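Give me structure tokens for this 292-residue protein.
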Amino acid sequence: MSLRVWILAGAIAAVPSVHSNETIRLYAAPPTGAERYVGPERRYHSDQWQTDVVVNVSNPTLTAFLPDQAKANGTAVIIAPGGGFHALSINSEGNDVAQWLTEHGVAAFVLRYRLVPSQDDAVAEMATKTPAQAQRDMAAIAPLAGADGLAAMALVRGRAKEFAIDADRIGFMGFSAGGAVAAHVAFNYDTISRPDFVAPVYAAVAWLGDAPLRKDAPPAFIVAASDDQLGLAKDSIALYGKWLQAGQSAELHMYARGGHGFGMRKQGLPADTWIERFGEWLGQRGLLQVAD
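Here you go.
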């Protein structure tokens, strides 16, 4: 029996001690820098973004979404919502994605990574900043958010049996700034934090610079829209090029229309179906079936 099959068989036989919607702390104690946050983490509806957001994350967490055991196939995805490192679009780029995955037998973990400290309404505060100030704030927090992504990978893999998943079938998906976190994980992993696949969705990755992709990099599923208002279509094309240059497997979906931040929102456009294309990609890789 292969190691993968042994791990999965043992995991499915066990009764998970973690339940859906349970919150899991990434670190035993608040990480360095948490003292800079004057207010608590908060979730509210942003009128500007017309969606629920989470702000002021100082002590990162994972929220577990676990499929019914009758459907579970052993695959898992960590999801990093976007929001310019100031907020997290927690539904359409987080919980709604997780719900779709669990319906297809995939365990999901929504990551609340460290964000730029804010007073109250981070979305409104971000809008008052000059572009240079916003970029400085994002550049300062991005490495910490990337470290949270790597810590999330290590935690989920280290507790794979508890979550009833296969330790060799754990991927990382991220949107916009969360896509930058996903890319950071794909470029900076060690043995325990290496993702088995990555899915950067309209990722902002220019800050990675010319870092080369490793020769053992995981396969990638990349999504964006040509009419992205932030000009991030080029970032996705650059990511795809890095995978090709490294000789690693990659699939790119570049929709003509969709804009930025579409996530699981329905706009009556072909981009609405990106999650189905992701499901097909997982299926082609055998990740929607229990391992033999």
